[in-house]
UniProtKB/TrEMBL annotation:
<dbReference type="GO" id="GO:0003677">
    <property type="term" value="F:DNA binding"/>
</dbReference>
<dbReference type="GO" id="GO:0004803">
    <property type="term" value="F:transposase activity"/>
</dbReference>
<dbReference type="Pfam" id="PF01609">
    <property type="entry name" value="DDE_Tnp_1"/>
</dbReference>
<dbReference type="InterPro" id="IPR047768">
    <property type="entry name" value="Tn5p-like"/>
</dbReference>
<dbReference type="InterPro" id="IPR054836">
    <property type="entry name" value="Tn5_transposase"/>
</dbReference>
<protein>
    <submittedName>
        <fullName>IS4 family transposase</fullName>
    </submittedName>
</protein>
<dbReference type="InterPro" id="IPR014737">
    <property type="entry name" value="Transposase_Tn5-like_C"/>
</dbReference>
<feature type="domain" description="Transposase IS4-like">
    <location>
        <begin position="182"/>
        <end position="277"/>
    </location>
</feature>
<dbReference type="GO" id="GO:0006313">
    <property type="term" value="P:DNA transposition"/>
</dbReference>
<dbReference type="InterPro" id="IPR012337">
    <property type="entry name" value="RNaseH-like_sf"/>
</dbReference>
<dbReference type="InterPro" id="IPR002559">
    <property type="entry name" value="Transposase_11"/>
</dbReference>
Length: 399
């Protein structure tokens, strides 16, 4: 009943829910090198269109910790409009979401040490390069063989370059591919990307060209029948040597964080595609609430191993309220067993301490494997069930 009232309360909006999450994220970004990773996923398909969610999360570039939600918006995708897209102004295009995400990243990361916005091929948009917010770097996987300021073509020019060097990369197994070690050739170059000659109305007001750096990393002699690894990455800062080129590729590999978030939101967690809510407004509110919760679940998964030289401890306030600490400590004491492996090994007040509690609440025994998103989700839900009882008891004592 309480959830139904929330979803139908006109005073509760998805914009306000997102803004509250963004405010908390901005606090965690202060003084940190931030990766703002954005992508789009479908939440309700309908023929060639449907309802889409575009989201951005802030990630610490040094230790990979998820700092929170940085941007979220819903879009209705209509089928049959593909042929009209070039004649529409940017404000009327779906692609504006990539620019709006960058603007939110600049605002939320205003006090960060640095901010790099990361996007996949859909983010390869000239307007995004030309209108990049000040002090924000942009890293995008190239999708288009763009014209260059000197009349050449982007891909042909980098293909003709000699290799800057080679490196080895361990590729994990995935459906349809066995794990293997790939030998990669590295090339990079500065490029002046020419403004498209035709397309979006208003394009002529943008600069004639925009300077970017292209980093090209491709597999040499892949196994027979296996597609070669090949990344063409555009970044807004200079790359001076192969070490910096490989660092760009490593930053792009962090994009997996938002893919894992979408899996938690869908097949490995909240199953938002299976919602049976006919009305759009309550559906969107529930999806936004699930998105905020899925970010917390991913924060717990990342924090589960505690401190290491690469991952310092994060405070529990990354995913919980300060007043949640007494309940977390009480639950930890109740969940601990007699053996050392059944003791919470993490300092009180840390997110790792809270992750251990949620993992145990979610069914993890402490003995086998590491708790994943599904276990953390169940534990996170159990914690909030316990919190309702805890709060009710506290209110009764105050009466």
């Amino acid at each position: 009943m309480r959830l139904t009232r929330l979803l139908r309360n006109p005073a509760v909006t998805v914009e306000e829910m997102a803004a509250t999450a963004q405010e908390r994220t901005a606090e965690r970004c202060i003084g940190r090198p931030v990766l703002a990773i954005q992508d789009t996923t479908s939440i309700k398909s309908s023929g060639g269109g449907g309802l889409m969610l575009h989201a951005m999360i802030a990630v610490d570039a040094e230790d990979g910790a998820i700092l929170g939600l940085a941007h979220a918006q819903f879009m209705s995708r209509d089928k049959g409009l593909r042929g009209e897209r070039k004649s529409r102004p940017l404000a009327a295009k779906e692609s504006r979401r990539w620019l709006e995400g960058g603007e939110d990243a600049a605002r939320i990361g205003a006090l960060a040490r640095s901010v790099t916005v990361i996007a996949d091929r859909e983010g390869d948009i000239f307007e995004a390069f030309a209108r990049r917010p000040k002090d924000i770097e942009l890293l995008v996987r190239a999708a288009q063989d763009r014209s260059l300021g000197d009349g050449g073509r982007l891909f042909a020019t980098v293909d003709a370059l000699p290799e800057a060097g080679r490196t080895l990369l361990d590729l994990p197994a995935k459906p349809g591919r066995k794990a293997r070690q790939a030998r990669l050739a590295v090339r990079f170059m500065a490029a002046q990307l020419a403004r498209p000659k035709a397309g979006t109305p208003g394009l002529e007001a943008l600069p004639a060209s925009v300077g970017m750096t292209l980093v090209d990393i491709r597999e040499v002699d892949p196994p027979a029948g296996e597609p070669a690894v090949h990344w063409r990455l555009l970044i807004s800062r200079a790359v001076r040597d192969i070490t910096e080129a490989l660092a760009v590729a490593e930053l792009y590999r962090r994009r997996w964080a938002i893919e894992q978030l979408f899996r938690t939101l869908k097949t490995q967690g909240y199953d938002i595609e299976g919602l049976r809510i006919a009305e759009d407004v309550p559906r969107l509110k529930l999806v936004m609430a699930a998105l905020v919760a899925a970010v917390s679940v991913q924060q717990l998964v990342h924090a589960r191993d505690g401190a290491s030289p690469q991952t310092p401890l994060r405070p529990l306030t990354d995913a919980f309220q300060p007043e949640d600490q007494p309940l977390l400590e009480a639950l930890s004491a109740k969940l601990e067993g007699k053996t050392q492996r059944q003791k919470n090994p993490h300092p009180k007040g840390s997110l790792a301490f809270a992750a251990w509690v949620c993992a145990r609440l979610g069914g993890w025994t402490g003995y086998y494997g590491k708790p994943g998103p599904m276990v953390m989700l169940q534990g996170w839900l159990s914690f909030y069930d316990a919190k309702q009882g805890w709060d009710a008891l506290a209110q009764a004592k105050d009466v």
